[in-house]
Each structure stands twice: as C-alpha cells, then as structure tokens.
Amino acid sequence: ADAIPIKHAKASRDIASEYKYKETHEKEKGHYIGCRTAKEDPKLSWAARAMLLQNDRLYRKAYHESKAQIHIPVDAMSVQAAKECQTLVSDVDYRQHLHQWTCLPDQNDVIHARKAYDLQSDNVYKSDLEWLRGIGWLTEGSVDVVKAKKAQELLNERLYRTRPEELKFTSITDAPDVVQAKINALQISDV
C-alpha cells in the first residue's frame, strides 16, 4: 500500500479530480443566480412580501367577517331598557336651558321676553315636583334601619344568653345516689 506507483496513482487521481472540479466550476460560473442571498434577489423578496401580505389578509379576514355580527346576551335588552328608563326619569336632561340671548341694550322687548321665558321654564320645572311637597319619608323600612336592628339583636346579650337561675331544674327523686344521700343525711343528723 506504501509503494511509490500506488502513491503516484493516488496523487494523479487527486490532481485530476481537482482539475475536473475547477473546470466544471468555471463552466457553470455564469449560470449561477446573480445574488448572494435571497433578500438581494428581487423576485424572491417580492414573493416573500406577497406571502406576508396574503397571510395578513387571511389573518384579518375572520375579524372583518365577524365585526358586523353582534351577539347580545338575554339580559342586555333589559339592561338597555333600564338605562333608557333611567335617562327618562333623571332630571339631568329634563330641564332645558334656553340659549343665551345676544341683543342690543336698547331692545327692551327682547330682554323682557328672555326673562319671561326663564320664569316659564322655572315654573314648568317646579310644577312636576309640586306633588312631592309635604310628603315625608319614614325610615322604618329602610335598609340601614333594618341592618341596625339586626345588629342590635345579634349584640343583645340578654337574648343571646340564658342565665342559670332562669333554668327550671328538678332532680330525679328515685335515683339511687339521691336515695343514698338522703339516708346518709338522716344518719348524720341522728348522731
């Protein structure tokens, strides 16, 4: 295996292999893609960008299809009706202030009309509350009063504890230890 002709054959084989490799490399050199990386190639970068846009469109598609569909729970309608009723009952939007008048100082009729409208607005506003005048509110059934009464009952020691002298207790007369105690008492008293 170490003979000179064998070494010579191996070396010539390696040289021929390297020469053939370089020759084929030089032939194919012009056929390579002109870019070193995929980011530098315009077609590959365009394809990557198109893929990103397509993925983004598919990602947002489900949202755009479902954004117009509204699923209302059963109690939401009653909550909405309660809100509308509250706005009707509340006094926030009830009293409508008239717009601010801008007029010349010598237009007394406009100033007089403005004062009349303000007075009329106050009268209309107060007329609905007139029936409330004189009506009192008894606090007997309110939540705070009931809560205070319950707390007082819980803290009342007279209702919580029963004193020992109030318990009715009668001993059993026929029990053997009671009979023995009576006999012992009689014997002691006889002595």
Automatic annotation (TrEMBL):
<dbReference type="GO" id="GO:0051015">
    <property type="term" value="F:actin filament binding"/>
</dbReference>
<dbReference type="InterPro" id="IPR055297">
    <property type="entry name" value="NEBU/NEBL"/>
</dbReference>
<dbReference type="InterPro" id="IPR000900">
    <property type="entry name" value="Nebulin_repeat"/>
</dbReference>
<keyword id="KW-0009">Actin-binding</keyword>
<dbReference type="GO" id="GO:0030018">
    <property type="term" value="C:Z disc"/>
</dbReference>
<protein>
    <submittedName>
        <fullName>NEBU protein</fullName>
    </submittedName>
</protein>
<dbReference type="GO" id="GO:0071691">
    <property type="term" value="P:cardiac muscle thin filament assembly"/>
</dbReference>
<dbReference type="InterPro" id="IPR013998">
    <property type="entry name" value="Nebulin-like"/>
</dbReference>
<keyword id="KW-0677">Repeat</keyword>
<dbReference type="Pfam" id="PF00880">
    <property type="entry name" value="Nebulin"/>
</dbReference>
